[in-house]
C-alpha cells in the first residue's frame, strides 16, 4: 500500500510474511498464493506491499539462479503484490517448534550473516518495482548480549562496514539503493535505540541505520519522541519501522493478571519481559515464564512482554497492548513536515502462538486478521494527513 505524504514523497506500508514461514522458494510462492493475495483482495486493493522474509535456502536459490528471481518477480506482479522491504532478521528455522535463542544466530560477528544479508540485498534490488529505487532490509541488532566481547564487536563492525561498501557497489551496478536497519530488541547487544547510536555512528555510513520496531520500543519502556529525536540528532538513519504492539500488564502483582499472562507463555518464541521502576530502573527476564516464577521480576510497576499482539485486537482485561506507543511513534515518524522513514511494515508473526481461543482457525481467519491490522494502520496514516494512493 502506498501513501502520499504532505511533502509529496511516497510512504510504503507492507505486512511481513514471517507470519507464514517458508524455507524454500516454492514455499514462498505458495505464501503469495495462499495468504498474500487473499489479503490484498479483502482490502480491495489492486496492489499490496509485502515485507518478504526469505530464509537462507530461499535467498540462495534466488541469488544463484536469475530465472528463479524472474519467476518470483513475475508471480508478485501477477498477484498484485510488491516488495520494497525484506525482513532479514531470522536466518532459517523461523517456523520450527522452538525458535527461542536460535533466531539470533548467526550474528554479525559470523561471516554467514554478512553473506546472507548481501544475498538479500541483491535479491531485493531485483524485486523492487520499476518506479521504486530504494529498498530496505531489517536485521538483528548485532548479537544476543551473551558471549559478545570486544573481539566479536570488532568483527561485527568490520562486517557492517564491508556490507556498506557492497551496497555502494550494488547501487552503481543496478541503480537501486538498498539500506540496512539494525532492529533493537530486548536482550540483545543493541537493546534500545540509545544503544544503537554508538555502533552506528562509528560506522558512519548512511546505508546502515535503524529499524524501529514499536513492540521492542515499548517493551523497553522507551518514550517514542525522545528515542526518535535522539536518533535524528545523532544523524542515524531510520531505515524502516515495524508497526507492532507488545503485551502490557498494569498490575502484575495480582493473581488474576499473572494467570492471564501465563496464557501467553508458549514454547516457540522468546518473550523478553521488562519493568521500569523508579528505584531499580529497567529490569527484566529473557522470557515471560521466567518473570512469572516467584519474585524474579519486581511487580510493583507495570510489566511489558515482547509478544507481538494483533494491532486491532488488544487482549482482554486485565491485560492490554502497547498500541498507544505505536500511535505516538507513528506520529513522530510520519506526522511531521517530512517523514523520518518511508518504509513501514506491520509485523505480527505470533498469530499461531496466541492463547488457543485467540488463534485464527484456518487461512481465512488469518487473512481476516491481517486485513484488520492493515486497515487500522491505513486509518492511522490517513488520520495523520497521508493520502492513500491507488
From TrEMBL:
The keyword Cytoplasm does not apply. It comes from the Bacteria. PROSITE patterns: AP_NUCLEASE_F2_2. Gene3D superfamilies: Divalent-metal-dependent TIM barrel enzymes (3.20.20.150). It holds the Pfam family AP_endonuc_2. The keyword Isomerase applies. This is Xylose isomerase.
